[in-house]
Amino acid sequence: MAETRRRRGREGQELVEFSMTALLLAGLFVSSFVTGMNLIRSIQVNQSCRDLANMYIHGADFSTYPMQQLAQRLATGLDLEIGSTFTGNSAANTSNQGNVLVTLSRVMYVGATTDPNCASVGASHCTNANSYVFTQRIQFGNGTLTNTKPSTLGNPSTATISTAGVVANPITDAGAKLTAAAQANFSALWKTPLQDGQVCYVVEFYAQSPDLNLGSFLGGGVYARSFF
Amino acid sequence: MTPMPKSRSRCRERGVSLLLAGLSLTFIVPAVGLMVDVSVLYSVKARFQAAVDGASLAAARALSLGQTTQAQATAAQNNAVNWFYANFPTGSWGTTGTNMSQSTVSVFDDANNAHVRNVTVTASTNVPSFFMSWFGANSTPLTATGNASRRDVVVMMVLDRSGSMAGAPCTSMLTAAKLFTGQFAAGRDQIGLVSFSDNVYIHSSPTTNFQTVLGYTNNLGTGSGAIDTIVCNGGTSTAQAISVAYNELYKVNQPGALNVLMFETDGLPNTLTLNFWDSATNTTGLKSTSACTDKNGKKLSQGGFASAAVLPSWTTGQTMSAGSYFANIPAGMIGGIYSDDPGSSGQFNVMYKYWSTSTANNFGSSTFVASTAATGCAFGGGKTYTPPPTDINWFPLKDVWGNQLSPGYLPVTLSSGKVTSGSWQSFHNAALNATDSAAYQARTNTTLPAYFFVIGLGGTSANPPDYVLMQRIANDPNGDNYNSPALYSSCSQEANCTTYPGQPQGNFIYSSSPASLSQAFLSISSEVLRLSK
Question: Closest-CA residue in chain A for B32?
Fold first, then answer.
């Protein structure tokens, strides 16, 4: 009788122990998997960002469909969507779905009014003296992701820009200047101040990770930025 | 041995699963930790390598900064440090002991190509271990190396000093040209200058001392630099200018460098240098009614012009210097044909005594058309003709530089295998074709293929540059990337536009007014330097 009662008292004990262990291990494995996948994704995003920057600095025109396709192939698995084919140039191909937004910027430092860039337009017309200016901006992918991860450089939204993303008058167009905050951040990047006319090619690559979302723990996606 | 009571045995089984799980965790946790640490290491490595790559490319780009090669090397080192820390700030990912400074950036000449400078950037850091530090491995050392190179640049500037450029546009062009030369590496790069109107003047062959020779450091108009001496006047002998400029590149003969023709014009080609003697058939392009006479004083109708020996030698020919792309151009019946631009009266002006023997480059309109007529000929003295000209029956299929008048970009009327002299439109098209041909030959030369960067200037005349011709010269497949709205489409969408992916691809920029000309020149210099990496 007493034995039966004891046995009844132990009924489900293994189940509880197994459950506790399984809970621990499952949590460990799930978080390891998610972390691992995000790290793999992080590496891929960084590599893609670097490769795009390398091509960009060597003259690749990412406002054209073939080059955006190339970026898409580099980002295989990240779901970079660029829509249906187009001819010519589209520097703002952002009306797409998908999980990736790529932003390419060419930023130039305009020196003092006596420096060549200002001299080229006349010192009195040199609106953007002593400033960093956009000389090109190209974006493609899912444009809504700018709400989640806006470009750290801001946007030359009021500047006159061609379909290839080239800013028409970077020296005289006030809309080509980086925002005050971006100016400060950009200046802070350099250990030695840039000279007039020096150019920096910036590629920002953001991939959101809805499939690997662990709430606030690992849900923000992966962002990479390369200065070339 | 007394068997244990069942109840006690069962009691001892309690918690065994937990115990086993706990024991297994001592293996699982380090394994997971190792995985995480290695993953972090790979992430940092990717980031670190990207930073070093960015630094090396930026360093190579900075080799254009500075007036001496030492200053350029210092600029490269500073740039490398700048770009490295922009990409990989101190302490990124918890790294410690990051070592990257000017001293880890080396600039050196390429062992196999004297016209290439290399930059090697080396950086090291320690990547922290989050889990493996429990086992004494606090960090992992990481080293990355990046290489980049910069080719020296040999540039021939080809500047249009035709009459339509006179005044403010000419001044803008000279200012822009000076700014352009300031962007290149003195002592390593070489820049030369050719200007053209009806004729072509070689101001300077490519030289490493270009900033002094061309006058970059002078105030505009001081007259002490070659650029300062340009005066704008006359026609637009574009094909000849391209050929002569390319020949200067060819003579420098540095296939390991980046060879560039930087061509600026504000109008349409309207002048060709032609030889009116066909040596293959020993026939002349004179009309049978022409009063021109040969050396013996005989007209064509009198049996004159029967052989090369009796040609009147309208010019003294052109002796090419050693190493030239072109053979000597013999004396003969060489003359220039200038035609009005579209929308004008559609007339020709026939010139002779064509070559410049003067050191001056500012030929006035009376200089290129000799003040006395060629013996017996009706032309000379600034006379103009409604096609056909009084004396000339045909134009050859090639100009004296071998540039093809037909076939080509635009249709040309032929008669008996020659270009007819009876049509202004035909000659106009032929002038454009020859220009296109001159660029094509320079791009496709197997010894020294040249890149073309082209600036078209608008706002100075009723006949601005032909977009398609400019795209073809630059071999630029892109549409207008510099004006908004775009003024022309990509080459594939333009009629008669052809580009060749296998040939050097340059850029064409259209500057809609002289005010934006300097920006166009600076944009071109930026593109050239981008290619020089």
Answer: A32
